[in-house]
Write a structure and sequence with these properties.
Rossmann fold, six-stranded mixed beta sheet, four-stranded parallel beta sheet, 43% helix
Length: 319
């Protein structure tokens, strides 16, 4: 039975922070220098986590919260790569088996890292993976299911990032996070809004897959009819689920849609100015900030991950 949706309380996030302190890094907040007349933009470098993506926060918290009986069954999740690595990392630390229903077009880098962490890979189409995410079930997957975004403990784990942002940038006006399933922005937004309700929480989506912006225009959870696969594989779903719409609507103040060219330019800028590798989804937030639609700042852009094949990264930033 699926648990009912409920708000992510600040107490849940603070408990998660204590629970995962020995597993995750407190990542740095780095200011980009755009000159005296440029915007005040700071990068939250989650690509520096042990799995090179923010998902380890949620994965570690969700696995730590399992009962003994649930642990005994092992765990499984659904992922394009980052959530799979996070749950596999936490499962390996707990000494329990892990399976990942994986989108078959996931980057080789992500597949190899999940296997290296001991995960059993079950490749499926994007459509089948999304159906499993919506139904919370997949025939043939064994163990306790940990949803990659619609899971209270998972989202609370992501909220720990919001606590760090407010401590390191108390003057922040806007926080921008990529939207895939919605777990990242729900967690961070829940923490920030609980402590600083005036701070704007803005999503970033690629033009090829922007269901949350479309859902906002429609006033309800909606499917994005023009969805296209792209190198931004870690964000941009086919639709917003009703449960995640309920989670995001009270917290998210808007969504900025960016082009793939703007995303590539942001990836290059992060490499040039911060000497950091961001995957497509990881650069969406900076691309959104640079449109000017989020104001002058201070803006915190969450670089959600850096799991991308280096040859592909070099190809994208060179064009």
């Amino acid at each position: 039975m699926i648990d009912p949706v409920r708000p992510i309380a600040i107490a849940d996030i603070e408990a998660a922070q204590a629970r995962i302190a020995g597993t995750v890094l407190r990542t740095p907040l780095v200011r980009l220098d755009f000159g005296a007349d440029g915007p005040d933009v700071r990068l939250k470098l989650e690509n520096l986590q042990p799995t090179n993506a923010y998902k380890i926060r949620g994965g570690a918290n969700a696995v730590a919260m399992l009962s003994d009986a649930e642990r005994a069954r092992g765990v499984w999740t659904i992922s394009a790569g980052n959530a799979g690595q996070a749950v596999a990392y936490a499962a390996r630390a707990a000494g329990i088996p892990c399976s990942v229903v994986t989108i078959e077009t996931a980057p080789q880098t992500k597949l190899e890292r999940m296997r290296a962490l001991g995960a059993k890979i079950i490749p499926v189409s994007y459509e089948d993976a999304w159906k499993a995410a919506e139904s919370h079930a997949f025939e043939g997957a064994e163990g306790t299911f940990i949803h990659p975004f619609d899971n209270h403990g998972f989202i609370a784990g992501h909220g720990t990032m919001g606590l760090e942002i407010l401590e390191d940038a108390p003057d922040v006006r806007t926080v921008i996070a990529a939207i895939g399933g919605g777990g990242l922005i729900t967690g961070v937004g829940s923490a920030v809004k609980a402590l600083r309700p005036e701070v704007q929480i803005i999503g970033a989506e690629p033009e090829t897959a922007s269901p949350y912006a479309f859902s906002l225009a429609e006033g309800r959870a909606s499917k994005f009819a023009g969805w296209q696969a792209s190198f931004v594989d870690g964000a941009g779903g086919q639709s917003v689920t009703e449960r995640m719409w309920q989670r995001m609507a009270p917290i998210v103040d808007g969504s900025i849609v960016v082009s793939l060219d703007e995303t590539r330019a942001a990836m290059r800028l992060i490499a040039e100015k911060a000497r950091a590798v961001a995957e497509g989804a990881g650069a969406l937030s900076l691309a959104a900030a640079l449109t000017g639609k989020a104001g002058d700042g201070p803006i915190v852009c969450i670089v959600s991950g850096g799991n991308i094949d280096l040859e592909k990264f070099a190809e994208l930033v060179a064009t």
